[in-house]
Amino acid sequence: xxxxxxxxxxxxxxxxxxxxxxxxxxPCESQIYCHGELLHQVQMAKLYQDDxxxxxxxxxxxxxxxxxxxxxxxxxxxxxxxxxxxQAFLQEHFQAAGQELQPWVPEDWKDSPRFLEKIADSKxxxxxxxxxxxxxxxxxxxxxxxxxxxxxxxLIYSQHPFIVPxxxxxxxxxxxxxxxxEGLLLSEMAGTVRGMLQNFLDLVQTFGHVxxxxxxxxxxxxQPPLLTLMMARYVAHTNDAAFLRDNIGTLALExxxxxxxxxxxxxxxxxxxxxxxxxxxxxxxxxxxxxKDAELAGMVPEGAREALWAELxxxxxxxxxxxxxxxxxSQNSSSLSSIRTSKLVPVDLNAFLCQAEGLMSSFHASLxxxxxxxxxxxxxxxxxxxxxxVLWDREKGAWFDYDLEHGxxxxxxxxxxxxxLWAGCFxxxxxxxxxxxxxxxxxxxxxxxxxxxSLRKSGQQWDYPNAWAPLQDLVIRGLARSPSPRTQxxxxxxAQNWIQTNFRVYSQTSAIxxxxxxxxxxxxxxxxSRRGSAGPMAWP
Length: 540
Known about the structure:
The chain is mainly alpha-helical and 540 residues long.
């Protein structure tokens, strides 16, 4: 694939956890931001179009004082506070969302990074230059007050500045940040990447895992585990072996979290294989989507509500929030109330972990620790064997999620079915060519504006007709691993399709989105933004 096309494609792909759900104490104890009567009454009153707005608002005084005032107010109104009184209460005791952050222009930003010179098309080069300038608008740093009085904020303090997705998202997110870092490295901004990496490493040291995003209400769940890959990309770019040596123990802690908290055993053919799943053992509505989750729970029996909320959180942990992928096999596969994320063994999650285990082996070998290198080499080998025994389908030429309850693969199409190619976790080079035939047989290559997220039109945003930037990357770079010129040419064409789709829409709207409709609406400039509300400055 031509280098300039790969580089622009990377720039376009930027940032874009059994038992009873109530069995464990919640990681976040806040009776304002995570659970409790105040959260319930405010969110169910729907004072804001977006539930996230309330849980992002800082407190004007200590939480104990705010709760004391609210209990008095609730008691005076028989625990059903009228809307005007709630609004007045919030105005008195809370500040506007976003107050805890301030703009930050990265010190290592430069006007003309080298990759721009390699883009032959003058219009695309000019567009790439405009995108490069967005780093200066998406940079943020946390105000010192968050460190001094953390109890007044839902934002988790980060020592180093970072890049945010934009739109409604004022904080950084886990797996989005991998593609942000890819773009930053392309823009020769390794210093910014190092700071963001350190923020993630600090989160692991503090909480034992990387939360979904940098808010206390995200502490119950993680997101696709790409921290080790982030480190690999940074070290490959900088040769900063000292940074790797200082933090390799923290990378191991994160992988331990997935090994201990998200593992599942699958028995096939008399053998047992250990793989991983998304699984969040906590009930209660998601604070940032509280009213939607509470209303959805009205569709199931009361005794099933905590389990539903736990499954919704697991779906959010996957990054695919939400998709028919997590509904397949349920009695009502058209309703989100039937979500069953934790009952599936996802291809992409296990590919990411396989990749991380391989990288950890290479890291330790480069640092001279052969015992640890052998440990992770063996872990990768076991996972690779499990991927091929449980998830690989030789006849179809792809990997498929495994349904734990029904003991069978889910043969629906998702780009994640090719994630092992992207992660380099496959044993036979011919698998990439088999995957190309799988794409052809699925008629996925007939879509001219991107690879669809699924072939089911469920109304969920991680389904047809939407195509998401990270998933384009999984397919394109996965196919590009093939030694076959034909498979590489298809990868190149898919990259061109995605670039041209985004360029056309940007030319019409001055907006960059991560989710594009793959049907004919795109020709008219119809795009859907990430998570439904990112604004014109949203970055992929």
